[in-house]
């Protein structure tokens, strides 16, 4: 993870429970994937789409006048979620083909937005809601499989952050975030002490990189070891910490950070 990525992650963690969290999360994600604009909404099957954040600069009025005023029901992402779409990263082109995008939606709305390419990250929130984060490009430049894979690698981290911020599907956390001036120090200390006393030195190094969103190959490259070795360390550290996924590991790290255990160890 680069220094910029670490700074953005620190700011996002600091924003947990505050109104600035969606904006910080958007900046963290846009540092990982090249896009012109981003939209974040929550959705419940049979209910309205709820606006959370956007940084649209072109035809922004369409979002409020038309999309959130009912047209979201024709969105291929909402249609796919209503039919059991799993958590993941999807291109609009793929869902439009699989779900059958409404001609009216395409001709009378989507073309007006100016978006030429769209990628969506979707996952369940508590309260039987989904979070949909849309990445748009104003040029006809498709999101490559590599870009989609890079975003998919961050799904567990983003999901854990959002579950922490929206523990009941909506509303801020009761827990106040750490003071801004101390957050960078707290995050570094928490990364250094996470798993101390339960993990070997190498397992702790692997765990610290996993909670920063790296996949097995990136962890291997960072530590100069093989991906198979990383997989073995990952299996062992999951067992020792009682985690069954990267998202669960990140949730443990957030607890470690927020409760201040990193300072006391």
UniProtKB/TrEMBL annotation:
<dbReference type="InterPro" id="IPR036388">
    <property type="entry name" value="WH-like_DNA-bd_sf"/>
</dbReference>
<keyword id="KW-0804">Transcription</keyword>
<dbReference type="InterPro" id="IPR000792">
    <property type="entry name" value="Tscrpt_reg_LuxR_C"/>
</dbReference>
<protein>
    <recommendedName>
        <fullName>HTH luxR-type domain-containing protein</fullName>
    </recommendedName>
</protein>
<dbReference type="GO" id="GO:0006355">
    <property type="term" value="P:regulation of DNA-templated transcription"/>
</dbReference>
<keyword id="KW-0805">Transcription regulation</keyword>
<feature type="domain" description="HTH luxR-type">
    <location>
        <begin position="192"/>
        <end position="257"/>
    </location>
</feature>
<dbReference type="Pfam" id="PF00196">
    <property type="entry name" value="GerE"/>
</dbReference>
<dbReference type="GO" id="GO:0003677">
    <property type="term" value="F:DNA binding"/>
</dbReference>
<keyword id="KW-0238">DNA-binding</keyword>
<dbReference type="InterPro" id="IPR016032">
    <property type="entry name" value="Sig_transdc_resp-reg_C-effctor"/>
</dbReference>
């Amino acid at each position: 993870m680069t220094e910029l990525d670490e700074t953005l992650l620190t700011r996002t963690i600091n924003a947990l429970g505050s109104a600035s969290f969606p904006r910080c999360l958007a900046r963290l994600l846009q540092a990982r994937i090249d896009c012109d604009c981003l939209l974040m909404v929550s959705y419940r099957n049979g209910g309205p789409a709820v606006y959370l954040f956007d940084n649209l600069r072109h035809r922004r009025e369409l979002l409020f006048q038309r999309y959130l005023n009912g047209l979201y029901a024709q969105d291929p992402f909402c249609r796919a979620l209503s039919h059991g779409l799993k958590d993941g990263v999807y291109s609009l082109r793929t869902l439009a083909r699989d779900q059958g995008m409404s001609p009216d939606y395409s001709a009378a709305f989507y073309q007006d937005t100016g978006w030429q390419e769209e990628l969506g990250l979707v996952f369940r929130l508590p309260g039987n809601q989904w979070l949909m984060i849309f990445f748009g490009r104003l040029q006809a430049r498709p999101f490559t499989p590599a870009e989609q894979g890079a975003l998919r690698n961050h799904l567990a981290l983003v999901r854990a952050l959002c579950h922490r911020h929206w523990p009941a599907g909506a509303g801020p956390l009761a827990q106040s975030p750490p003071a801004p001036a101390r957050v960078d120090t707290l995050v570094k200390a928490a990364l250094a002490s996470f798993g101390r006393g339960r993990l070997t030195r190498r397992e702790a190094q692997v765990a610290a990189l996993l909670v920063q969103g790296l996949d097995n190959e990136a962890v291997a490259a960072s530590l100069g070891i093989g991906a198979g070795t990383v997989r073995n360390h990952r299996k062992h550290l999951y067992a020792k910490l009682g985690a069954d996924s990267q998202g669960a590991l990140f949730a443990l790290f957030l607890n470690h950070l927020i409760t201040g255990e990193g300072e006391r160890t």
